[in-house]
Amino acid sequence: MESTDVAIETTQLLRWIILFPLLGAILNGIILRLKSTKLAGIVATAASLAAFVASFMAVTRWGFSLEGASLVYDQWFMWFQSGKVSVPFWLEYTPISGIMLLVVTGIGSLIHIYSISYMEKEVGGYRFFTYLNLFLVAMLTLVLGSNLVTVFLGWEGVGLCSYLLIGYWFTKTENAQAGMKAFITNRIGDLGFLISIFLFLAYAGTLQIQELNHLGPQFFSALPSWVLPAALLGLFWAATGKSAQFPLYVWLPDAMAGPTPVSALIHAATMVTSGIFVIVRVWPLFASQPEVLNVVFWVGIFTAWLAALIALTQNDIKKVLAYSTVSQLGFMFTALGAGAPEAALFHVLTHAFFKALLFLGSGSVIHGMHHEQDMRKMGGLAHHMKFTHWTFVIGTAAIIGFPFTSGFFSKDLILAHALSRGMVPYALLLTAALMTAFYMLRAYSMTFMGKPRSDAADHAHESSPLMLIPLGVLSIGSLFMGWIQTPHFMGGGHLMETAVKSSWGGAEAMKPFAEHKISVGGEILMILAVVALILGVAYYSFKVYREFQSKKFISPAERAVGPTTAAPFINASQNKFFVDEAYDLIFVRPLRFLSGAFFRIVDETGINGLLHGMRKSLDFSSGILSWAHTGNVQTYAWYLAAGAAILLIFVGRVLL
Amino acid sequence: MTALLFLLIPTVSSVLLLLFHRNRVMAQWVNLVFNFLWAAGLFKLWMEFRVQPETSVFPIWFSWDWAPFIGSRFSLAIDGLNFPLLALNVVLSLSLAFYAIGHEKLSASYLALFSFLNAASVGSLMAADAAAFYLFWELMLIPMYFLIGKWGSKNRIYASLKFFGFTMAGSLLLLGAIVYVGLNSPSLGWHDLKEQRWVFDGWFSPQALLFLGFLAAFAVKIPVWPLHTWLPDAHTEAPTGASVILAGILLKLGVYGIARWCFVLFPEASLASSTFMMGLGVVGVILGSLSAMAQKDIKRTIAYSSVAHLGFMVIGLFALREESIQGALFQNLAHGLSTGALFLIFGMIYDRTHTRELKDYGGLATKNGVLATLFLFSAMASIGLPGLPGFVGEFLVLSGSFVTNPWLTILAMSGILLGAVYMLSAMKKILYGEVSPTLEAHPVVLKWSEWMAIAPMVVLMLILGLMPQGFLKLSESAVLGMLSVFK
Description:
The complex is a heterodimer. Chain A contains 27 helices and 3 strands. Chain A is mainly alpha-helical. Chain A has a 3-stranded mixed β-sheet. By secondary structure, chain B is mainly α.
């Protein structure tokens, strides 16, 4: 560390947070390989809980606000170093890492517990729990890594686990295909991460995150003006991959091919938020670049909007939740773009609870319906699955921002920031929030209200306590987690702000936070208006879809503009606006064509053609010498040796 | 003496193995014993290498005045540049010795040729004299030619001739350069040649032509685009063991040769060709990856992936920075292990199914989960997943070359993406989906000796990926010494 005013505290606690799940993965995957999935699940859960305890100890020791300008490092070992490149494998505790640690290991443990029951019928389920533990290892490395390369190790590591878990049921080619799509789409993003790393290395000479934060904008202003924006855009590009933003979001909906606990843990609560987390880690740099933040802001808004629009018409319950996740991640990026990292991270936290709850709830439904995910075949489940139903209600309330649930606080904070950036972004984001209310109530009503629309729905059964307990815990979080960061006029907590502010090792961010410029009266008014609108839309959707019967049902769009006018929109939304098809046409097919063309034209026709041509002409002209062409390598070897000897002797005699 | 001993073990074993030409099984076990002996030799080498002062430049371990009339001494030297490759050679050879146990086709003569190949490759790695180097360099050709030509698959004759032709063409230019160099220098010893400064003023000056002569041989071996078309044929037709050694050691000798001979002897020419060679590296990365995507034959896909990976190494070498060269040398080890493992594992599958066509495969993960996991592990190591060794190599190469030439580096980075595309597509087809009729008919159940063959590679990949620092330290002073010629 260059500046001397920074106190460094060293510890060996942090490595244990990673080592416990690693031990779990090794035990399950290599040593025990238990026949009983249940036992394997217990081993994995124990590993995850141990990581939770270690995280908890870390958080109680250093808390959510590091005094003054101190840094906490676990200086584990030197990963690799050569020339200018120095990559120590150090772990670092910052308050925001503390929050993420609790989320990852806490919600992670709940999902492990849930999975014990969810996966119990699985043969060879130890593989599942190995991957799940391995995911924790990678995710915690991402959270704790002290430099961009160790973060990148975690970053690609979670990608690998995501790939393995999406394709967990690999006998179906579609699942394997979805896993591959996730991996490759993320790699497109990761190239940005690497370019960013190389730029920082070449121009700043360090990859330690806190050193970069300390160098700060002043240092970079002495460099060519494009360096810092390019490096930050590289990071953001990577974030659009991992955190499923436009244009790289396309893998996330397909990722629903994985088992539902995976969707809850990786594709909702933790991994997909790592893009936001990494940006907050280097926030002092981002804060100095308004143009970059502007890009982040608009990409966030556009994604929030587009994904919500697609979610309106999906019939697969997991697809609705997947697009909802993309949309909510868009909210978080909007907050970042508006200069409010605390709001973004706050939404990461609340979203982790209510989205994990919703996914696990849908998992409980899918489990009860014997792997049926189509909501058109559900209905009336409120009677059969009372506990699941009520927790789903809580999750839905939280995600739409029902007053005083967790989502209410975080979403209104983001909306206030959007409003201070102008009416247009605010209107767009508000529409996205209203669409959220609509599609969530649609999903809720189609699933739980009305009459059962299939035999499976008629005979659905409530899940086991092992699955319901996590639902209960997450419900409590979804209800009350919001109070840690309340609007200023309410007094209350402001934990996120404190945590975010003291996470840069005392580095000064030029503009740490954009204070939203809304007056207290205005804010109250805005909140009331938003709540009224949301509840209105929610009630409307509830009323319409409560009566959903697949045959004679008329959707609200059709009611509003008539069936024929609405059809194109419904069709486009149901087909995800043909983005996948467009990518296929623009990127995949040309690439496939190019690869074949290059191979045939350059290698086969060009180089090999030339060679064969040469050989033929040689054969023709050397017909006389063909007696020497014995085709026997030994003879050739003798020629070679003899030739070499003659050459050496001859040249030597002549010249010396 | 230890260096000579290390060279003699495979030489002697190659002769002794011929005595067992009537008893295949016996030969296979004797071969295994000799490989353990060789590993012991490596250990002794390591104990002595460890205490060698870091400042010594390519210290000579053994020297014999065998040809004073041409100013050549048979001298063997070991430093941080070649020691890791010697170790890799032993590891791969030991793996293959386990693989050979109980294999019906791998007779005494096959194993003898293999030992001979090992002797030639470690000989050219240790040679500190241009004539000795050339001798070993040529000696590698002969066993390889027979291994492909006799034990290869259907198109083996074409492949072995193509291999021979390409390599021979490169070697002749090397020979010419060595003769010229020898006549204009007090001796052919590396240390003497290093002190010579050949005139460099334009691409027809002596240094430039000599540089090109040496480079020709190494560029064919690596292979640098567009001299690569022998590789897919040779790799594909070669028997498993030859593929492993070809990818693991022979290609690496090209990289090593450039670092050891071209850079040190001809620094000005090397520097002048830097951008051009980096450009060829980039073309190799991109066209190699694209061609790998277009293949329907699994071994061909892996072979083209080698072209792409070696392209990264060429970029790293010619970026001429400490971290990039270290990266290229580390990538040597990483690629040797990961691609070696890919060829080895696929070889075991091929032994049962006798087809290399991608379309014949599917659902291996259902049939043999552990093998599928290891296959995927090797593929992930090959595409540079962080935590596995390929990442460290690629990362160091690219972070160094980014300083030298950012635009070429960015172009080369497309290889990181394309690598994931072709490798994961192949993995998806082989491992996942329904079990294919071929795999249904030919169950892939491995013997203990085959597991023993894969295990050391996998363990080493983990060690190299997570704790690469020790290996980088090994070659650090040698690389710094080498780079000092550019100052």
